[in-house]
């Protein structure tokens, strides 16, 4: 199967045959071993038959694409424990709260894990070959293909979900027979009923996922691992419909695996985290990587006491002690997401908390000032959601009014004071500004972690958790605030609304870059003129960055829609490639951020910002929980533009001018000079002139000591400083005295990371 795709070496292959079988839920049960730098345990996958083989229901709709008419009624409730839930009936209202796992259940999970570990060597499966001989049995049997890389797969088995107590409620047949075929069908029927439970039964569903994942195995499956995939089959099973729909995979990661990085934090303590690898999570657990494979997950992670486990999960996990020195952490999500968005970080993190009541009160006062005075813009929330059914916050009246979701901040102990200084105060302001712009927060809570110094970016957003670089902490609130706004924007664009084709990164990064300016301006409560000045200054800086990148990169990497008209297309099996997904240079490029930002900025200027932001909110309400292509957004936006403002704009013209070509778009070339008229830019130009003149006078009269103190230099904003320094770099020579004076005048060592760079 791998050879059929024949991906270029720079393309990332997505091998999973999602058209045949689609993962709906993962249950991870893992141990983190820092001595061996290994994460090991099991993962249980619950499947539905894929669209190629699915029988349509009596209404003619396929479940993976159906649009449910029922709304998800939700109410707040008290925390409860999974084993204690009475599951005889579904609640008429969905409850949205935190789950915790009791120690008893976690011990059962741990015991099961150890029993299987003991049996591993007796099973006769060679972990060195990591292969069961599929070839000898012919190729008639159905092959389940999962994305997998850098993993040692030890054993794969079918899970006997029919053995779970109380599971008979999911069977339609009145009685069981001893016939093996009927028992296999019964297991698949149970899984089907479980994964298709309505949203208001999500607690019951999670309860049974937990217990089914702990059910005994009922037969080992044959498997083979390749460079990019794990192939699994069951002898004699020739169709996806008959293939086991609940399987358990025993595996362990490798220290050199590329999905997680083992390192030390800034305090010298060991830690491990997912750092946004180009290969995503396939070296952390076997999965289906294609975005179409939207799934929920739950995870129990055990580690030594003293370590904190943070994860993309709806609940704020509290550790349970299993035995002396071992803690277990449990997280879950009920909103289906691509497996690539799963995130974990294990380390000796400390929670950073507000020290004084005065600070908290001051923040709350600022938040109230920044909230919109009228909620009429959010009237679209009353419409039915268009996504597959799940407990949706957009249909929860309490969530729709929540300007600031619960948040926590974690950091190594040596950085806690730095976090207290700015970050803690900025979070509620930025969350509130985002809410005022886009409406309902898609996720119920947020953890923010200051990750180790080897993190190669300024930030990374995942469901319920944001990673921030230590570089955003020093030098005032500007860089910290703008980067925080950027990552918060990804909750809507990149997570709640994802790209159906990963080559269209601009849908995530272009929107986040555009919205970070909107959010940050609102968080600072700037006047209209101040907002305009700052945004034009930032536009000029980004234009310079884009110009430099275009001049120094391959043309093929500058195209925002590299697959053009074939964007979003899959093979019959569902497999595909991410074009240039493994190209080393691409990791450091910002073209998707910058060209995407300028396209959105251009559209906003055409329509008018007020109308444009209203269209964004409408788009969010219509497409949250779904995957989109560029044309989905552009078509909806153009429908909202009055004819007199369109100026010949069409989806095709936008593709041609902005998305399908390399270089700087033609409309942007015409606009580039206009930002130089901005007052903030003019101010920098005046200061540059002063510095250049002073430099020339000193060089001409080197014997006479010229007094630089006689020149009056103005104080500049961080973005102005960046522009000033970039302008001065164009001078052939700057004498040492000028450099020293620059340092003194602007206190460069105390500025943020962008100025320092």
TrEMBL record:
Polar residues compositional bias, start-end: 111-124
Gene Ontology terms, MF aspect: metalloaminopeptidase activity; zinc ion binding
Domain of life the protein comes from: Eukaryota
Residue ranges constituting the Peptidase M1 membrane alanine aminopeptidase domain according to the UniProt record: 441-658
Keyword annotations from UniProtKB, A to Z: Aminopeptidase, Hydrolase, Protease
Region (Disordered): 104-124
GO cellular component: nucleolus
InterPro entries: Aminopeptidase_N-like_N_sf, AOPep, ARM-type_fold, M1_LTA-4_hydro/amino_C_sf, Peptidase_M1_dom, Peptidase_M4/M1_CTD_sf
Protein name (Swiss-Prot/TrEMBL): AMPO Aminopeptidase
Organism (species): Leucopsar rothschildi
Lineage: Eukaryota, Metazoa, Chordata, Craniata, Vertebrata
